[in-house]
Amino acid sequence: MKRIVLTVSILIMVAGVSFGQGCAVCTKAAAGMDDKSAKGLNGGIIYLAFLPLAFMGTLGYIWWRYNKAPQTK
Fold first, then answer.
1. N or C, where is the chain less crowded by C-beta within 10 Å?
2. Do residues 46 and 65 lie in contact, with contact meaning Cβ atoms separated by under 8 Å?
3. On the CB side of 30, how many CA atoms lie within 13 Å of its CA?
4. Nearest to 42 by CA among 58, 23, 55
5. Digit-coded pLDDT (tens) for 9-68
6. 68 in helix, strand or coil?
């Protein structure tokens, strides 16, 4: 179990470094846009992020629901 947690932790740290440059590119691109185009870019980012976040949230909820301790009276 400790090995799995360590592996996942390392992968998360490496992914943060490798995907971090995307934010700088979006910032540079949005700096030269007018308000309407910047709002469109923000909307597109939210649109693309919705499905993976909804999927992870659903899996987290299912995991939480089935693994919570049963309540005794």
1. C
2. no
3. 16
4. 23
5. 887 777 655 555 566 677 777 778 888 888 888 888 888 889 889 999 999 999 888 888
6. coil
36 in Cβ contact with 47 (< 8 Å): no
Task: Evaluate whether 29 touches 41 at the Cβ level (below 8 Å).
Answer: yes
Torsion of CA 23, 27, 33, 36, to 10 degrees: 60
pTM of the predicted structure, to 2 decimals? 0.49
| Buried residues in 3-39 as b, exposed as e (16+ CB within 10 A) | eeeeeeeeeeeeeeeeeeeeeeeeeeeeeeeeeeeee
User: Using CA of residue 37, residue 41, residue 46, residue 52, what is the dihedral sign?
Assistant: positive
Residue with tokens 């301790």: 69
